[in-house]
What does this fold into?
Amino acid sequence: MEDIINDITLVVPPGHHENTRLDKYITQFVQNATRNKVQEGIRDGLVLVNGKPEKPSYKMQPGDVIHITLPKPKPPVAKAEDIPINVVFEDDQLIIVNKPPGMVVHPAFGNWTGTLVNGLMHHTGSLSELNDPLIRPGIVHRIDKDTSGLLVVAKNDVAHSFLAAQFSRHKLERTYWAIVWGTPPESGTFDGNIGRSKKDRKVMTIVDAPDGKRAVTHFKVLEYFDHLALVEVQLETGRTHQIRVHFSVNGFPVLGDRTYGGDSVRFGPNTGARRTMFEKIFQHLNRQCLHAKTLGFIHPASKNQVNFDSELPGDFRDTITKLQTYCKP
It folds into this structure.
């Protein structure tokens, strides 16, 4: 039997999507939805527009309210794969991994193989089964595909439960490094509820309660460049895309972030020469410049505080070097 994605509601905003087909609109704004599956759901009466069924070819109008209960097939079971993993620390309770950019943490739609979980299953036969053991064995927390850095993975259910409780109580110590556009203050805190955008379900945004969860992000600037800054970020909470959203909505999108506006020259006089310089500096940067630098927590067995640090990946280090050379304020 298939699982159901319940209570997805989209409201068509004015000015952008008039006369777009219903099936195309849903495919654009519902994560993991394919055109064929959407058309099938519409014909089966699982999609309502303003409270009634419509054809896949129905042309969207501003203010239309779409309610969706699209079925999704159960995912396949994750399998072990011989994938190189950068293990920072390992004992019989947990593994600390420095994830490279471009690697998905666990299998999901569009990435059923080649993930960190596939590699971990090959590396060790002992992973926690506390949280979705078929797809996410051992995974206590995640970072985005194109974010690099440290993750803790549990080898057994007791360790997983102990670590998850620290996440829930915001007791883990996590710092990230990011390069952001603009000139943020030397230090500060972003505090705002984060939830899925009603205009695009694939992205997150700041929303009013109760539609989102409170997110708190502390930061300090490590180095200023020409309309860019290297910042250290400390998470008090851990929401999806939290750092990327908080910095973007406050006018400092993460460099290279295609989803939240950081993939083009954002500030300063955009002369031809200046734009060419920036494009040359960033020509090998194919992702958001965000790295999970440190991780600290109470070890589930020893009950002592443990702390881990990680090296920046090559593309991040290279970008900093180029900024220090060519873009000092």
The longest helix spans residues 314-326. The chain has three domains: 3-72, 87-169, 175-326. Helices lie at 22-29, 35-43, 116-123, 157-168, 242-249, 272-281, 314-326. The first strand starts at residue 3 and ends at 4.
